[in-house]
Amino acid sequence: MAFDTFTDFLTMGKHGAYVWSVYGFSFLALLILIWNTLSRRNKVRQKLRRRFLRD
């Protein structure tokens, strides 16, 4: 393994704060994109459902 201890893994040679913050930001961005996509999909479905029920 590249790291001897779990603490070494977390600190990553004093770059841990940068590395883990980038992982956190990426994870947050993916969650926001997924939420936004699902939200828009539901809005389109509701709009189409209303349009087809009217006719």
TrEMBL record:
Entry membrane topology: Single-pass membrane protein
Location within or outside the cell: Cell inner membrane
Entry keywords, A to Z: Cell inner membrane, Cell membrane, Cytochrome c-type biogenesis, Membrane, Transmembrane, Transmembrane helix, Transport
TM stretches of this protein: 20-38
Top-level taxon of the source organism: Bacteria
Membership in a protein family: Belongs to the CcmD/CycX/HelD family.
Physiological role: Required for the export of heme to the periplasm for the biogenesis of c-type cytochromes.
Name of the protein in its database record: Heme exporter protein D
